[in-house]
Design brief:
The protein is 73% helix and 0% strand. It is mostly helical. It has one domain. The chain is elongated and about 45 Å long.
Length: 114
């Protein structure tokens, strides 16, 4: 996303990497479906807790994923995607919150370092 945003294109129509951009955004959007459930299952298998705090956090992650999906779907629904649009979605507080959520859960699932 950052590479496309840096190109300063007014639209992806006719751009050499248009298909790659839309494929990346589509895969990003699809990967968010059920993300909290995947983490929930991993935490269960690894016996990570406390369960109530983790569940509350995973509910937050699910909301952040849904909001990010909405932004990605809006972007993908446009006939032309400008570099500025991609830059704004990437800078969105919702995308940033989602990435932070993922980093937190990832570290918790890794467990303490020996």
């Amino acid at each position: 996303m950052l590479g496309y945003a840096a190109q300063g294109l007014h639209t992806d129509q006719g751009a050499a990497n248009s298909g790659q951009l839309r494929d990346h955004l589509t895969r990003f959007e699809a990967a968010l479906t059920g993300l909290a459930d995947v983490y929930r299952e991993c935490a269960k298998v690894l016996a990570v807790g406390p369960a109530d705090a983790l569940e509350t956090f995973l509910e937050t992650l699910a909301r952040d994923a849904a909001t990010t999906q909405a932004a990605l779907r809006l972007l993908l629904g446009q006939p032309g995607i400008s570099s500025q649009m991609v830059d704004n979605v990437n800078a969105s507080i919702h995308v940033r919150a989602l990435l932070t959520d993922v980093f937190i859960v990832d570290e918790i699932l890794k467990g303490p370092k020996a």
